[in-house]
Design a protein that fits this description.
By secondary structure, this protein is of the alpha/beta class. The protein contains 16 helices and 30 strands. The longest helix has 17 residues, at about 220-235. It is globular and about 70 Å long. The protein binds guanosine-5'-triphosphate and manganese (II) ion (2 copies). Guanosine-5'-triphosphate binds near residues 291, 316, 317 and 521. One manganese (II) ion binds near residues 268, 269, 291 and 292.
Length: about 600
């Protein structure tokens, strides 16, 4: 049994509530040792992980890891939000009573860390001094060393964040127990994995995974699910799966901040990182603030809407990251960055790594190369063309490694928000960009955001998998209340942000993308900022304002005229079809504010009259 008191004394962890929490779980999980972590432990942990074979060297200051082959993504079916109030059940939050979930999780975790070290990871999901600091502190307990190393990159980690709390009992209790990965019945009726947020007790209990999306509890479970619930319960803020960037016009000296949500794997990281400093020549500079989470609030003093990224790092999709698509991401994992790669292809002899899209073709000499599962490429069966890297393979790096990270990314007061954008993967119908000036229409647009499940295969023709505000997997309270909370927070601002819907993914009949995407996405965003500044007026359509061809900066692009027409046109018939789908989608949300229904009916009527 671990001598918990001695370990906590030695680390100087004095917060009595944290001590009690650590003792309770050390005892329950049966951990052999307890170790309190600070960011400065990283080098030692890395050496230990290399010695133990948990990580492999991938060049100077770079690490490679593999997760169990059935444990490579977030599991939405196994994710649950629990509270003691049945009225907290929504369409997507998979609500269950906490009286059922807590004993169940304690049962699974009891004795499950026997023989292991329980790491105590105190963290802060905000820059210190933030007006939302009271909601940002947490302590993750985990029995995985690689999870600790990820947490050090993704969150601000250190003992001071919890010793000095204004309210010493106000921290998120986040317990992660890996479990016996090979015997959890993944995907069977006896699946033993549970990822539970007991939201009204600010307690997170995750059992049965060591993959980042399930195991880095500061990020998604606290930063998104718990924070969204806290923002609603306190009435003070929003927490969303949003990227956040700044655009500076060097000629006018003006700086704009845009945040927004796209469903997972729809381009947030790429947008925020790719709009590299030299985008569109020398005139504009793009600052990176965040790629996955933003907290939004209205400042009590100046009445402006502010946003900040609570994270300290990036957990990005590796696939298709290369010098052309995303040089920023590529250089954020340069030698010496401390980056960790997960589930890509690896060559133990040369310590090189590779993923699909890193280069047009895989390395020619396959000697020594192993796929993400660790199988030798040279021993693959004839005709086996399965990917070398897992499609959801990731890189983990700290914000300060991102070449265009904003100089004020650590600033506690956040940045004023000029526009909020939504975007999904939509093969047709959605134009390149359309702007909305009305709050209810903006929120309505977010609520009806979606992405095609996949091309052709699972997708019912033209039907989206709706993903309100890109929060479907992270929704912690009912959608009706969520919409009302959005209307309430944003209407407190003395200046409305502009809303917009973007789509980089329209396709031609032959399947090609009609818009070049990636770094060219700066162009529609610049138009949006010009619209905000009153420099252009666009063209009003039933679903918002869209740019005219003349207004959009197309310098140096070679897009066929008919493709351009398609992405700058509203297909009325397809839109009316979509509106019918929305009737059904929105009806699933109890207590949706009347303003949202009115916006829906307004758009519908405008389309019919058009
Ligand atoms: P999560 O991190 O899972 O929340 O996803 P994300 O929204 O950050 O997605 P990400 O930026 O990693 O992009 C996912 C995929 O979309 C990658 O394979 C990109 O190459 C592709 N992608 C991103 N932007 C564009 C674009 O402008 N055009 C096209 N065609 N593809 C893009
Ligand atoms: Mn995400
Ligand atoms: Mn991302």
């Amino acid at each position: 049994m671990a001598d918990v008191e001695a370990a906590l004394d030695q680390a100087g962890l004095t917060n009595p509530h944290v001590r009690e929490y650590v003792s309770y779980w050390a005892d329950l999980t049966g951990a052999e040792r307890v170790e309190v972590i600070s960011a400065s432990d990283d080098a030692r942990l890395a050496q230990e992980a290399l010695d133990a074979g948990e990580l492999l060297p991938a060049g100077e200051g770079l690490y490679y890891s593999r997760s169990y082959h059935k444990d490579t993504a977030r599991s939405e079916e196994r994710t649950i939000v629990a509270t003691s109030n049945p009225e907290d059940a929504g369409a997507y939050n998979n609500w269950r009573p906490s009286s059922e979930m807590k004993p169940l999780l304690e049962g699974k975790m009891r004795g499950a860390s026997a023989g292991k070290t329980m790491y105590v990871v105190p963290y802060l999901m905000a820059p210190p001094g933030s007006p939302l600091e009271a909601y940002a502190a947490g302590v993750e307990l985990t029995d995985s060393r690689t999870v600790v190393m990820h947490m050090i990159r993704m969150a601000r980690v250190g003992i001071d964040y919890i010793n000095d709390l204004a309210d010493p009992n106000s921290f998120v209790r986040a317990v992660h127990v890996t479990g016996d990965l090979e015997n959890l019945g993944h995907g069977t009726p006896d699946d033993a994995r549970y990822f539970v947020t007991v939201a009204d007790e600010r307690t997170i209990l995750h059992f049965g995974s060591s993959y980042g999306g399930n195991a880095l509890l500061g990020k998604i479970a606290h930063g998104l699910r718990q924070a969204a619930y806290d923002g609603w319960a306190s009435g003070k803020f929003l927490s969303e799966q949003f990227m956040l960037l700044g655009i500076t016009d060097k000629e006018t000296g003006k700086k704009y901040h845009i945040c927004g949500g796209f469903p997972s794997a729809s381009g947030k990281t790429n947008l925020a990182m790719t709009l590299a400093p030299d985008a569109l020549g020398d005139r504009y500079y793009v600052d990176f603030y965040g790629d996955d989470i933003a907290w939004l609030w209205v400042d009590e003093n100046d009445g402006k809407l502010y946003g900040m990224n609570p994270e300290f790092g990036v957990f990005g999709v590796a696939k298709d990251t290369n010098e052309a698509t995303n040089p920023g991401a590529l250089h954020s994992v340069d030698a010496g960055s401390g980056a960790i790669f997960t589930n890509i292809a690896y060559n133990p002899k040369t310590q090189e790594v590779w993923w699909e899209g890193k280069t047009p073709n895989p390395p020619e000499d396959v000697t020594g190369w192993e796929d993400w599962k660790g199988d030798l490429i040279s021993e693959r069966a004839e005709g086996d063309d399965s990917p070398w890297a897992h499609p959801n393979s990731r890189f983990t790096t700290t914000l300060s490694n991102v070449p265009n990270v904003a100089p004020d990314f650590n600033s506690p007061q956040g940045v004023p928000i000029d526009a909020i954008i939504f975007g999904g993967r939509t093969r047709d119908r959605e134009p390149l960009i359309r702007a909305m000036t009305d709050l209810a229409e903006g929120v309505y647009d977010g609520l009806t955001l979606g992405a095609e499940a996949t091309f052709a295969a699972e997708g019912v023709d033209g039907q989206l998998r709706y993903d309100p505000m890109s929060m479907r997997p992270f929704m912690s309270y009912p959608e009706g209340a969520y919409a009302a909370h959005w209307l309430k927070i944003i209407s407190q601002a003395n200046e409305m942000p502009l809303f917009a819907h973007v789509n980089w993914f329209q396709r031609g009949d032959d399947g090609r993308f009609l818009w070049p995407g990636y770094r060219e996405n700066l162009r529609p965003l610049l138009w949006l900022m010009q619209l905000k500044a009153g420099e252009v007026s666009g063209r009003q359509t039933p679903v918002g304002i869209i740019p005219t061809k003349e207004e959009l900066n197309l310098e140096g692009l070679d897009i066929p005229a008919e493709d351009l027409d398609t992405i700058l046109t509203i297909d009325n018939a397809r839109w009316q079809q979509e509106i019918e789908n929305r009737d059904v989608h929105l009806a699933a949300f109890h207590g949706l504010p009347e303003e949202i229904w009115e916006a829906h009916r307004r758009v519908k009527a405008a389309l019919e009259a058009d």
